[in-house]
Amino acid sequence: MTEPLRAVGTLPAVADELWRTSAVEAVGLLRAGEVSPLELVEAALERIEQVDGAINALPTVAADRARDAARRVKPGSPLAGLPIAVKDLTDVAGVRTTYGSPIYADHVPDQSEAMVRRLERRGAVVLAKSNTPEFGAGGNTFNEVFGETLNPWDTRLTCGGSSGGSAAALAAGEVWLATGSDLGGSLRTPAGFCGVVGIRPTPGRVANGPSPLPFGTLAVEGPMGRSVADAALMLDAMAGLDATDPLSLPEPPRPFLDAASAPTLPARVAYSPDLGITPVAGEVRDACERAVERLQHAGVAVDRVDLRLDDAPEAFQVLRALGFVADMWELHETERDRLKPDILWNIDRGLQLTPERIGWAERARGAVARAVADVLETHEALLCPTACVAPFDVSIRWPREVDGVALDNYVEWLRITSAITLTACPVVAMPCGLTADGLPIGMQVVGRFRGEWDLIAAAAALERVWEMSARVPRTPGAAS
């Protein structure tokens, strides 16, 4: 276990200890002038050199670009020159961006996406691109361009996906913050598998653009960090209006970091181990049950609710398939032989949809959102696992069976996250405990629509109860 982090204002004894500091602490050191952005870049590069060979989280490192950016950071900017990683689905000007696909193996965009431009204006230094499955499709991070990304807790296991490279890099101390994106659990699943924190915000909280589908609300961008406070710090730097995104929201009246700095234990929460729609492995149920019991001992009233979101899995599959057609139709026509089978399956399913089926899915989504909103009217948060299984062997592309229930496609095991996607509610995915083998288990903490401030304050308090944040960063290796 990592030793407690030293207070802001005391420089680590040796430079290679900088990777142990939290993002909040590192920004404090930068603002105090006790360390420079360039020194943090070099510390991160040294750490990447030491450990990335074991996990393959950051296959593209833009060292010279980062050094140049570090020398030009605007004094007083919110992130003050902090190096970050950007998921390889997101364009960064002048940096190889592959989307995990051999079709784009040599692609170097001329312009960064809106989220990256905003982060850089606010003092982030983009140091590397984090690995992702092809076009972000799947909950296990592997592709034909860069190969597999492994879990720092046990390098025989998957880190989850599709923001697996970001989660693994954070858990291994390669960077202090990283971007993620989430459609059906792509940010939340790897956060749970790697023992870090990810925030799936309300659609529009983080501008996403320019996009050919600017009115979509299923996929969002979000921050990932080693603690709730770190993720909140990054969300502050990401949030705000942008002309390229018609759904983008104004900056919050109070910084989200202030919420993380004022932990507020919720009086009453709801808990469901499965949302009534998915099998859940016993070790996940047990770890989450222990986490819930700790909350009760801390004085939180926990109501075990019988949510049965029966139509959620199929509604999500329909809307996901429709999105794949809208987004990838041209590639389906011109590059079909180079797309992985899972993507072809999604597009082909979308092409078979009828107007009646699409209409049904939209109505079913509305019913799911209403059911969860009803729970949140009387509870400050809804809790459920981030995944139905613990981290598994990376060679298993997706679980074919969970708790005796067969799963027939690569999305089915993600039901517990994809159902929450349909609600548009913000979610903090955070570690809540360990399996008997010492692997991290995550909990989704679901808040009210556009209620990120209260959600983050609650999550920061839950983090204190569950006492998991000190377990990262860690040096990658195989667990015994």
What is the CATH C level class, in words? Answer: Alpha Beta
Order of strands in the sheet with the most strands?
Answer: 1-3-2-8-10-9-16-17-13-11-12
The total of helices stands at 14
| Number of structurally distinct domains | 1
Beta strand count:
17
Q: Report the uncertain regions.
A: 1-14
What percent of the residues sit in helical stretches (DSSP H or I)? 25-40%
Mean pLDDT reading:
95
CATH fold node name: Amidase signature (AS) enzymes
- The termini sit apart by 15 Å
Give me the secondary-structure category.
alpha+beta
CATH superfamily membership, which one? Amidase signature (AS) domain
Report the C-alpha radius of gyration, rounded. Answer: 20 Å
Q: What is the overall shape?
A: globular
Strand count, sense and closure of the main sheet?
A: 11 strands, mixed
The percentage of residues in β strands lies in 15-25%
CATH architecture: Alpha-Beta Complex
Account of the protein in words:
- The protein is of the alpha+beta class and 480 residues long.
- It has a single domain (15-471), classed as Amidase signature (AS) enzymes.
- It has 14 helices and 17 strands.
- The strands form four sheets. It has an eleven-stranded mixed sheet, with helices on both faces. Strands 4-5 form a two-stranded antiparallel sheet. It has a two-stranded antiparallel sheet with strand order 6-7.
- The model is unreliable at 1-14 (pLDDT under 50).
Outline:
By secondary structure, the chain is α+β, with helices and mostly antiparallel strands. It contains 14 helices and 17 strands.
